[in-house]
Design a protein that fits this description.
heterodimer; A: 296 residues; alpha/beta; Rossmann fold; four-stranded antiparallel beta sheet; 23% strand; B: 284 residues; mainly alpha; MetI-like fold; 11 helices; 78% helix; 0% strand; globular
Chain lengths: 296, 284
């Protein structure tokens, strides 16, 4: 059902009729229902983030130039582009992590639920609890065990009772599809896990804070193909509850997991489109060159 | 080609021998020194030596006030120097932005590390003993020693803080931690073993320093133990120095025995600290 669902959304209309014709009555009906759900989802799309004229600098180097785009709620939003195109900088502007680097500056607006994040009086610390982030290299805290790693973000804000904490640890690890692998050894150091497990631990750690958005900066680039598939499967589930922005250098990954894709080049937004449209009918010549592998 | 490879191997074995000698020679000298000192002081290394007060008769004289004074002195010194030193390191590494103020502080710290210890004695005498009227007390000594070891504590702590990868700081920020929470929960636990190493080094330095204490007027004849930070005190190196300068042969034996006690205390301190450091490192 699920694969048909994706197939359906990726097919053009004429193609769909052929598919329907080839199915039996029940298949036909299911496909019809899936189509309805998908249509409803498309029409009820909400914007989570909106950037307006967003530019960012490192010292005198301009990493982003005048980017205006929308990040859609409860969808997987992929940002693609060659190395150094500013895609990481872009998502780091969404939770104000860009300014952590000395000499970094931001100009323009980022609206989260229509509230400007760069207004005076917005506390980046509180913002980052709503907008979680997973990094390129898995980075569990080496001085903490698995359990403490999951709770590390929560411990900052309030004291937890033991059973409350147990519940959060289990649900966060379940959501990150790691629970079954680590439930017997929650007291082992987080760094004793394999790379893919560590990355899922980092996802669990972000989810435990109960954010609205999950930013992922090339989360699979340090992982092997099996671990990558696990994380991609996870994204399909997580988007029901969270808005996901994923930076990736892999176009096939963007095509597999995302609903909307933005293509960045030299700090500029070239194109942002429905993922299937962007990969089948790129409007810009540069997008076409990039996705067909002529550069990058 | 082949001869080049051979000469490379020759060079390597020469280097190996040279570096091995570099380890062995100082160790041999140290061992020789320890053995002679031990043989010189052997007759006085009896329990009463540790539990007696100084005396004009060498065979009755003991090291108790000096030993207790030294231990109090290093405890007080650490209590003063560690928070200030680690605090400065945190400021310079985590908060400083490399501006002119940071540079000024940094230059000052490296200057302080190069100042002869006797000048710290003069400074302590003028500042703590006289200006702040602490008198010739344990507290004045501890403050002076704290100043003396601060550069070591700061430099070692900075190295330890710098060794914590920035990816962990970012992970903590991304979870909604403030800068201070990040330092407290992520950076300090990871750098604790490195900071502790610096503290051990500085404590050992404070333990062995004599010159500043001479200026501060640490007494050598004390018939009582220091009972408060404000009481007069003496320390092991001062006691040893005093005994060595006496003409009687008996006091030379006492000095040798005192040196053995000092060395044992230092080794014990180092051992304890290394034990804790390894324990912390294992967690990481």
């Amino acid at each position: 059902m699920e694969s048909r669902f994706i197939l359906e959304t990726k097919c053009k209309r004429g193609y769909k009729y052929i598919e329907i014709a080839s199915e039996g009555i029940s298949g036909n009906f299911n496909l019809f229902k899936a189509g309805k759900v998908e249509e409803q989802r498309l029409s009820s799309r909400k914007t989570k983030f909106r950037t307006e004229g967003l530019s960012a600098w490192f010292g005198s180097h301009q990493a982003l130039n005048n980017i205006s785009m929308k990040i859609l709620k409860n969808e997987v939003n992929a940002i693609i582009g060659p190395s150094g195109c500013g895609k990481s900088t872009f998502i780091r502007c969404l939770n104000r992590m860009h300014e952590v680097v000395p000499g970094a500056r931001v100009y323009g607006h980022v609206y989260l639920d229509e509230k400007d994040l760069y207004e005076d009086g917005i506390d980046p610390v509180l913002l980052r609890r709503r907008v979680g982030m997973v990094f390129q290299k898995p980075n569990p805290f080496p001085s903490m065990n698995i359990r403490e790693n999951v709770l590390s973000g929560l411990k900052l804000t309030h004291r937890l009772k033991k059973d409350e904490a147990d519940e959060i640890v289990e649900s966060a690890l379940q959501q990150a599809a790691l629970w079954d692998e680590v439930k017997e050894r929650l007291n082992k150091p987080g760094t004793s896990l394999s790379g893919g497990q560590q990355q899922r631990l980092c996802i669990a750690r972000s989810l435990a804070v109960n954010p609205e958005v999950l930013l992922m900066d090339e989360p699979c680039s340090a992982l092997d193909p099996v671990a990558t598939v696990r994380i991609e499967d996870l994204l399909h589930k997580l988007k029901e509850q969270y808005t996901i922005v994923i930076v990736t250098h892999s176009m096939s990954q963007a095509a597999r997991v995302s609903d909307q894709t933005a293509f960045l080049l030299m700090g500029e937004l070239i194109e942002v489109e429905q993922t299937n449209n962007l990969f089948t009918h790129p409007r810009d010549k540069r997008t076409e060159d990039y996705i067909t592998g002529k550069f990058g | 080609m082949k001869s080049g490879w051979r000469s490379g191997r020759l060079l390597e074995s020469i280097l190996k021998v040279v570096s091995l000698l570099a380890v062995i020679i100082p160790l041999l000298i140290l061992t020789f020194f320890l053995i002679t000192v031990f043989l010189d002081g052997e007759s006085r290394l009896v329990p009463q030596f540790l539990t007696s007060y100084p005396s004009y008769k060498p065979e009755d004289a003991g090291i108790l006030p000096a030993l207790v004074g030294s231990i109090y002195l290093i405890i007080l010194t650490s209590v003063i120097a560690v928070p200030i030193g680690v605090g400065s390191a945190i400021y310079l590494e985590e908060y400083g932005n490399g501006g002119w103020l940071d540079n000024l502080i940094e230059i000052n710290i490296s200057n302080l590390a190069g100042v002869p210890s006797i000048l710290y004695g003069l400074l302590g005498l003028e500042l703590f003993v006289r200006a702040l009227s602490m008198g010739r007390s344990l507290l004045a000594g501890a403050f002076t020693m704290a100043l003396l070891v601060l550069p070591i504590v700061i430099t070692a702590s900075r190295e330890a803080l710098r060794a914590v990868p920035s990816s962990l700081r970012e992970a903590s920020y991304a979870l909604g931690a403030s800068r201070w929470e990040t330092i407290w929960q992520v950076v300090l636990p990871m750098s604790a073993s490195g900071i502790l190493t610096g503290v051990i080094l500085s404590v050992c330095r404070a333990m062995g320093e004599t010159a500043p204490l001479i200026f501060l007027g640490a007494l050598t004849y004390l018939a009582f133990l220091p009972d408060s930070p404000m009481s007069p005190f003496t320390a092991l190196p001062i006691q040893i120095f005093n005994w060595i300068s006496r003409p009687q042969a008996g006091f030379a034996e006492n000095a040798a025995a005192g040196i053995v006690v000092l060395m044992v205390v230092l080794l014990l301190l180092n051992g304890i600290a290394i034990y804790f450091r390894n324990k912390m490192q294992k967690r990481i």
